[in-house]
Write a structure and sequence with these properties.
This protein is of the alpha/beta class. The protein contains 20 helices and 17 strands.
């Protein structure tokens, strides 16, 4: 505990003036040698391209460790087909830090339809195939092959959300906690700044990695002997909090009703214990071993969060890249004001990873970062000094036809074809065209994923209340097409959906119809779009403007309260 408090202080100890850093962290041993280093303390392995920007999590951790005086190198998108790249820097003195990158590697490669994505925004030129499937596992095992005695610490979103038994959408199976399959010593889950500082300090003082078992925000694999000694959950926690034992992997993997109920219960228990302030330690047995989870790391203070963004990032992609990194182009002029999310949406894992406590930066820290952004050669923008969630701001944007309109998720658990039709009718009645509709993708550890896999609501009593889930890939496409009623490329699928739901009355040119019949003229009246004569009806993408009401063939929802509500 004393070390932990010291690390908390060290995280916020230096508030030097923010500016653009002059140097990238070493990416080759030649780079390290030019710095006068004969060996490295830490090698940070990441599945993303090396972009020296605080929006890239592994680089944020690397910069934090470097600020503490450690010799840190970045091994970005290594060739995993051999061990050679993992020996590039020689044997690191302290540990390998392994992360798949900013996105789960399976989500990065495959769509909701389980098709290969055409690009990878985290790679130079958007080229796909620059990281392996299940990158955390592959990288960790290569690191172990390269140097069997060097500690390996997993981190990042992939490791964090796969830390317990989890449903994997792409293999349609329940997989074991990632530590069971990865040849690693520790797993840091959630936002890892405080845990990694404590671990690195204890390793520097000569403590063996297998003795570091009490760091908040970490998980470890117990030996067979330790697991056998656990006849019942007992107090392993230094804070004397009782351990919550999750259903064992073997209890949740069967696929029968009892196994699915146990899976739903496991999901609810882990969700309830993810609170940073009062979360309890967890234990999950896997065969003759078990994974032990310390309580989550405490949230950073405003001062500590400020210190992270005062680190000397260059805010540029590494100069070795000849092509731009698309993900960097999106965020390079952005500012992060907050961390965490209190909304706790069932489909989202932000609260599981970042926590439900919203942490904010100081005004002074934000102003320093703005000053640094203005030093970038290609910065020609301004700043928006108002929150886009303010009602007055939204109203002003609506008047201009640029009103923010949320992205929609189709095929979410609980959403039937009939519900989707009602939502599509509501959108059309109010002349709303969603700029983005995404198929629901079951990502590990979200409550909606538990609903998708089990067909049960984990938040209901005994986690046994049934929930409809659309599992057919074709049927998922049908739901998406309905919400894209205005897009001609989706009309064939939308008509198929309406035929399937026995709603052929919604196919036609009338004001109460969703889509035109097949082989209709290119410019159809169902979208209230001018065919070349007469005034154009004001219908805009993302517009909240209401056109004059017209009689409908059947009653339509007339207020947001009448529309289907999202499942939360």
């Amino acid at each position: 505990m004393l070390v932990h408090l010291q690390n908390q202080r060290s995280l916020s100890s230096d508030h030097s003036k923010l500016g653009l850093g002059g140097d990238f962290l070493p990416t080759t041993m030649d780079d390290a040698t030019r710095r006068g280093w004969s060996e490295l303390d830490v090698v940070m392995v990441t599945g993303d391209a090396y972009v020296d920007h605080p929006a890239f999590g592994p680089i944020l951790i690397a910069r934090l460790l470097a600020k503490r005086g450690l010799r840190v190198a970045v091994l970005a998108q290594p060739d995993w087909r051999s061990v050679a790249d993992f020996r590039r820097f020689g044997r690191p003195k302290l540990f390998f830090g392994v992360s798949a990158g900013n996105v789960d590697s399976m989500l990065n490669r495959l769509t909701a339809q389980k098709q290969n994505r055409s690009s990878d925004p985290y790679s130079p030129g958007g080229r796909p195939g620059q990281r392996p499937d299940r990158a955390t596992l592959v990288y960790a095992n290569r690191c172990r092959e390269a140097f069997p005695d060097v500690p390996i610490i997993l981190g990042g979103i992939e490791a964090s959300l796969r830390r317990i038994a989890h449903y994997d959408y792409w293999s349609d199976s329940v997989r074991r906690p990632i530590l069971v399959d990865a040849k690693a010593d520790l797993l840091v889950f959630g936002m890892g700044e405080s845990p990694i500082l404590e671990i690195s300090e204890r390793l520097q003082h000569g403590e063996a990695i297998d003795r570091i078992r009490d760091v908040r925000g970490t998980a470890l694999l117990l030996s067979q002997e330790e697991t056998l000694a656990l006849s019942a959950p007992r107090e392993l926690s230094p804070e004397c909090r009782p351990i919550v034992e999750l259903p064992a992997y073997e209890e949740v993997v069967g696929g029968d009703l009892e196994s699915r109920q146990r899976f739903a219960l496991m999901s609810r228990q882990s969700h309830e214990e993810s609170n940073r302030q009062n979360g309890r330690p967890l234990l999950q047995r896997v065969g003759h071993r078990a994974v032990y989870f310390n309580p989550p790391a405490l949230p950073l203070t405003e001062e500590q969060l400020d210190a992270l963004y005062d680190l000397p990032f260059t805010r540029r992609a590494h100069p070795s890249y000849r092509e731009p990194v698309p993900a960097y182009e999106v965020v390079k002029h952005s500012l992060r004001l907050l961390r965490g999310c209190a909304s706790d949406c069932s489909f989202c894992c932000v609260s599981e990873h970042e926590g439900r406590i919203v942490q904010r930066r100081s005004t002074e820290s934000i102003e320093r970062e703005l000053t640094a952004l203005q030093q970038l050669d290609d910065f020609h923008g301004g700043t928006l000094d108002r929150c886009v969630t303010e009602p007055s701001f939204a109203a002003e944007q609506a008047k201009s036809g640029l009103s923010p309109l949320p992205a929609y998720i189709s095929g979410h658990p609980g959403s039937t074809l009939d519900y989707t039709i009602e939502l599509a009718l509501y959108l059309k009645a109010h002349h709303l065209r969603p700029p983005s509709v995404q198929d629901f993708i079951p990502t590990p550890m979200s409550l909606a994923t538990a609903m998708y896999y089990t067909g049960l609501n984990p938040q209901s009593k005994d986690a046994s209340h049934p929930v409809f889930t659309e599992r057919g890939l074709r049927d998922k496409k049908l739901q998406r097409a309905l919400l894209m009623y205005w897009d001609r490329s989706q009309h064939d699928l939308a008509r198929e959906a309406l035929h399937k739901a026995n709603r052929r009355d919604l196919i036609g040119h009338g004001p109460g119809c969703l889509v035109p019949p097949a082989h209709s003229p290119r410019h159809d009246r169902s979208l209230n779009v001018s065919t070349g004569r007469g005034p154009r009806t004001p219908v805009r993408h993302g517009s909240l403007d209401h056109a004059p009401k017209r009689p409908a063939s059947r009653p339509l929802p007339t207020s947001p309260e009448d529309a289907p509500q999202p499942l939360t």
